[in-house]
Amino acid sequence: MEIDRALAHAKECLLAELLPEGRWEGELSSSALATAVASFALKLGGKTELAHRGFQWLENDRNEDGGWGDSPESPSNFTATLLSRCALDMATGEPDKLVAEILHFYGADQTFSVPILTMCMLSGKLGDDWSTVPQLPFELAVFPHKFYRFLNLPVVSYALPALIAIGLVRHKQKPSPFGFYRNALVRKALKILEAIQPESGGFLEAAPLTGFVTMSLIGAGFREHPVTQNGLRFLEETMRDDGSWPIDVDLSSWLTSLSIRALEGDLSSDWKDRLRGHLLDMQGKEEHPFTHAEPGGWAWTHRTGGVPDADDTAAALIALHQLGCETAVAEKGVLWLLGLQNRDGGMPTFCRGWGKLPFDRSCPDLTAHAIRAFIRWRPKLDENYFAAVVDSIQVGVEYLEKEQRKDGSWVPLWFGSQVHPKNENPVYGTVRVLEALVELDEKEFPKVGNLKAGGFQWLENLPLENLCVEELALVAGMSGRGMKLLLEKTENGTVFPASPIGLYFASLWYAEKLYPMIFTVEALKRWQSHLTCP
Question: Which of 156, 306, 514, 528 lies deepest, with the highest CB count within 10 Å?
């Protein structure tokens, strides 16, 4: 049968990517923005030869319209083009208009607008008046972390390194008349920055964030500081052979969990042992120094710069249930997720109750993923945890009810579509929510029936012509629609073109080589199972 042959091919391809260490690493697309930021930071740090390799990649990766996109497959956009032009010392336009456009584009969220303005200043594109760069309150970093959510910080929860470093360069370059209190806190802020820098030297294992931090410290006069030198080391070690950088080194823990789930029943006992051991090693054992997350969660990568988050924790819990794991270990992850859930019933990414800025708010896809993890482990939990999980699922379903759009769809947080008018990806969001809803008992959770009906109706009316392989796989696996087209686009499970559907902070697009492969295996297995059911 055609589906059987395609599935065999796809599984073979996915298993071929499994490393002896017991993980999948995949390959993120190279990023013009990451390359511009990293190479410019290396230039300021005196790593001229390395910087020029990055500059050469930017020259070669330029789109036909003269601009740059987030990935080689992406259309040109304002931010990637601006930062690439800064790195290459090209004209960027009138300073006043440039500043106004940057601040307007990003609005109240200064997580990215202020780093961009800082690089523009350091590259000489805005003159020498640093008053155009908003002063980030780096001194707030010295407050106990439990107060952060009440301080109305202008950046998201995981941007603390940028808050400190970029706040420092602005303060050093343009001290305020009453900045004496900031002077007294510079050393303490630097100590905090040094304490939260991971062993790898890379904040979030990300070239953009690490590059912004490093160039800002150099601009503030701290070129020889250990944080700066470790940041430069990270950028040097993570440069690709072609001179580029991805936005993050890898998504190994995330990809490993998703691959395990897709390959259910197809892993040998030996591989199960290795994979289980790897995931258990990756579980947080101590309070995270960055976000102060409690032990028990998982990050997206096995590297030291990862930060525990809801999506990766849910994925790891589901994978461990599939592999066979002691309940005591899983309970820590379940409790971690329960402690993260917001008052509105939804799951945020990193921190509970931080705020409404992008990537800190509750979102449907993460909420549904947590519900799926709770469903797996609920029967094995003791009575106290069991009750808490049931309550969590109940309020989670109520949150999903509020977030369902009138057309029946849900919009996710960390995935988008470049062909969608608003760059949203309701295909991903709706399928991920439906995956959770179909696993719930409608007698126990009565609202599920109507939610499912709306979601499936939306999928049935969805045009398929412009969907990428990843989206086609999601639809085909859930409803069977698009299965023929999926088989055509993957040439019966043998080729897997990756599309930029992933989003990073500030809506930076990326493609991941393993996404279409994993999603296709999952879709073919799910549909095959449906066809063989009595």
Answer: 306
Residues 230 and 314 in one domain: no
Percent of the chain with pLDDT over 90: 77
Q: In terms of domains, do 240 and 274 share one?
A: no
Contact 263, 521 (CB under 8 A): yes
Question: Do 171 and 35 belong to one domain?
Answer: yes
Cβ neighbors of 502 (< 8 A, separation 6 or more) are 414, 415, 509, 510, 511, 512, 515
What average pLDDT is seen over the chain?
92
Q: Whole-angstrom distance between the N-terminal and C-terminal Cα of the chain? A: 18
Domain that holds residue 45: 31-246
Residue 170: inside a domain: yes
- Percent helix, strand, coil in the chain, to 5, is 55, 5, 40
pLDDT digits (tens, 9 = 90+) for 273-306: 999 999 999 999 998 887 788 999 999 999 999 9
Q: Final residue of a domain: which of 426, 449, 466?
A: 466
Residue 476 lies in a domain: no
* Per-residue model confidence as pLDDT tens digits over 503-527: 876 678 999 999 999 999 999 999 8
- CA atoms in the 13 A half-sphere facing the CB of 474: 24
288 and 187 belong to one structural domain: no
SS3 assignment, position 53: helix
Distance CA 82, CA 90 (A): 9
Burial 209-238 (b: 16+ CB within 10 A, else e): bbbbbbbbbbbbebeebebbbbbbbbbeeb
In angstroms, the CA 421 to CA 107 distance is 20
- Are both 242 and 335 inside the same structural domain? no
Residue where a domain stops, chosen among 410, 434, 466:
466
Domain total in the chain: 2
Q: Tell me which long-range contacts 75-79 makes (C-beta under 8 A, separation of at least 24).
A: 75/418, 78/105, 79/33, 79/105, 79/112, 79/116, 79/506, 79/508
pLDDT tens-place string over residues 212-269: 999 999 999 999 999 999 999 999 999 999 999 999 999 999 999 999 999 999 999 9
Structure tokens given for 302: 């096995």
